[in-house]
Amino acid sequence: MAATAAEGAVRPWVKHYPEGISWDTAIDTTPVHEQVLRTCGRTPDADALDFLGKKTKFGDLAKQIEALAGALQRELGVKKGTRVALLMPNTPFYVFAYYAVLKIGGIVVNCNPLYTVKELGHIVGNSGAELMITLDLKLTFDKAEALVKAGHVKKLIVCHFPSALPGLKKTLFTMVKGKDLAKPGQSDIADRVVTFESLVAKKLAAAPVAIDAATDVAVQQYTGGTTGLPKGAMLSHANIAANLSQIDAWGCGLFYPPSRVVAVLPFFHIFSMTVCMNVPLSVGAQVVMLPRFELKAFLDLVSRTGANVLPAVPTLVQALSKAGDRAKANLVSVEVTISGGAPLADEVRHNWSKVSTALLAEGYGLTEASPVVCCAALRVPSKPMSIGQPLPATDIRFVNIETGEVVPLGERGELQVKGPQVMLGYYENPDATRDAFMDGWLRTGDVGYVDDEGYVFLVDRIKDLIICSGFNVYPRNIEEAMMHHPAIDEVNVIGVPDEYRGEAPVAFVKLRDGQQVTEAELKKFLAETLNKIEMPKEIIFKDQLPKTLIGKLSKKELREEYAARGKTHEPA
Fold first, then answer.
1. Which of 156, 269, 378, 538 has the least CB density, counted as fewest CB within 10 Å?
2. CA 328 vs CA 287, 308, 332, 354: distances in Å
3. CA distance 150 to 516
4. CB–CB of 232/368 below 8 Å?
């Protein structure tokens, strides 16, 4: 279908798109599982997956998807609309399960394996998931077992992790790390456990299921846990497929064979699910996986596979930059690094240029938009510090935070989005759904502006905005200024109650190894770039700063930590 977004919208980006890209390009909303299976049929002998050296061809990928889909449907009663939870790190099993569930009209509910049982209980319980697919690693099985015992899940499908490994690694893992494996057959819920291997061995064919791409939910992705209980964003088959089509158009062939895409970001996160898995597999490119980031394993993977596309988060980019010459030689094959999930500091961009010649492009999205909304060009440089331009078929506007009026180009406001990738709403939460939209536009909660060439710049989150003596103070401005100090490795700024100013900024800092600097010295350094209102009231040094599972610095834990200190500020 052709792009048809908001009527009367101002689109300065259209005339300034990178060469070869059109805003009103046709958007393909064919469900992603159909696209992947079609590719499997077209190139059955090409490598689809590489997991620690064990490869899965597209033809074999299709066989696993088809066999699991048939068993889920005919043996376990999965019907259109049945919610199936996936609890596992990146492995081939995740890929098989994801597409198998979608093929028979089921709904994928992604779960973070490092969440607590309580957190998982809310997600699984709220979603209404009847089945959970997991691994026999104790890390995942013990939590899945607890969820069954608590009544959140009726049945478990357990995949044998060593089976995903190549021959020697499989043997060594069983011998050396056998203690990390659970024994599902000896569990006191063994009667509610079935193995992945036994299901696919039946080679059952699934009956066709009619799917309405525009209205049927494919993925129920939970988000918003930093401001309360996570909400289930309902992403239709068309939402997900549209975003793939938009990214495909934006990439100008980047994701096509012989490209190899690194998947170290977890598939259960929307960024990785879309960019690391769905996009490349739908067009026949290879996905090279790691279950978690570890520097040596990561560098070995890139060197061994010659991977050329690296979706990343800023902390991953920074970690590779800090490795210096150790990383440089291994990263020569990487042509494009796409950073998302959190703002990319200018200092991180600079550090990256020391270890890689790859184009570093910052993208922006949110779960409710499947997720990508804007992205810097992937073939040519974009404006520094911009998150790029809106993707094809995507409209954006900026709205005054207080009045709700649309602001002119160049003025700051809340970023709002319209496009075929925007969610249907939140599951069984009409109040939250209503609050998420304004006049049909998705509210992002991010503050920024768009220039006269359609380049978008973000300055902060509305919820992170600090109102200091009546003035707006943006933590990101302070963080950017502090990152230019050579002793600072990471920084995260929050607003805290202040008796005199209402709120005041407080900075939490992690120093580079072997570096020392005092609070007074840092404030003297910052005085050259920050005004008195922006100057942190306090700078707190920590050995580590809390992060989310994809490596995004988290303010939630810092707010809780500061509140627990019971500190109050005296008038300045």
1. 538
2. 22, 14, 7, 8
3. 49
4. no
User: pLDDT tens for residues 372-415?
Assistant: 999 999 999 999 899 999 999 999 999 998 899 999 999 999 99
CA-wise closest residue to 537 among 511, 489, 569 = 569
Of the listed ranges 88-102, 411-425, 497-511, the least confidently predicted one is 497-511
- CA gap 320, 379 in Å, rounded: 22
Q: Token pair of 306, please?
A: 């010659």
User: Residue 243's closest CA among 270, 223, 210, 224?
Assistant: 270
Write out pLDDT tens, residues 297-342: 999 999 999 999 999 988 899 999 999 999 999 999 999 999 998 8
Q: Dump the DSSP string for 306-362.
A: T--EEEE-HHHHHHHHHTTHHHHGGGTT--EEEE-SS---HHHHHHHHTT--SEEEE
Closest to 135 (Cα-Cα) out of 118, 159, 157 = 159
Stated as kind and residue range, the H or E segment containing 199 is helix 196-201
Determine the Cα–Cα distance for residues 140 and 143; give it in Å rounded to an integer: 6
The answer to whether residues 192 and 152 touch, using CB atoms and an 8 Å cutoff, is: no
CA separation for the pair 244, 266 (Å, rounded): 18
What structural domains does the chain harbor? 32-210 (3.40.50.980), 466-565 (3.30.300.30)
Residue 9 pLDDT > 80: no
Q: Write the DSSP symbol of residue 273.
A: I
Distance CA 262, CA 282 (A): 15
Q: DSSP character for 113? A: T
369 beta partners? none
Q: Coil, strand, or helix at residue 298?
A: helix
**Which residues have C-beta within 8 Å of that of residue 492, sequence separation ≥ 6?**
475, 479, 507, 508, 545, 553, 554, 555, 558
Nearest to 205, CA basis, from 44, 83, 63, 32: 63
